[in-house]
Amino acid sequence: MTPEKILYETEVTATGGRDGKAASTDGLLSVSLSLPKSMGGPGGEGTNPEQLFAAGYAACFLGAVKLVARTRKVVPSAEPSVTAKVAMGPVPVGYALAVELKVNLPGVDKSTAESVVAGAHERCPYSNATRGNIAVKLTVI
User: Fold this and answer.
1) Per-residue pLDDT, 2
2) Alpha helices of the chain — where are they, by DSSP H?
3) CA 90 → CA 33, 96, 101, distances in Å?
4) Whose CA, among 23, 66, 111, 112, lies 20 to 30 Å from 90?
């Protein structure tokens, strides 16, 4: 799926692989990367691609949740949140990701919240990019 019109574009360069650095050309993002011990690395104080993906997906999905809620006139009683749980493991050739998006819409009944979350999943750019490629579980809490 290709966008009809580009609304925003960014560029990030990684050096050193999973034990390196990543930085955006505009200077707003600059992070150290560390391979987690659970993946055979030394651990360390850096983040990793899975955490960055989880942060991006959670933030983007929350934006879609808020948009769908607003268009359907669903008003949560407090600030909604999305927690993205990203897992990685081996597949026959290489590795694959699995994602669980835990969505909290305070004060919204479960059926309505599930409908809003399903609508957000149809609109979120991360959901559209991963659909059919990554197992994504949607959970309303």
Assistant:
1) 85
2) 49-71, 110-123, 125-130
3) 21, 6, 21
4) 23
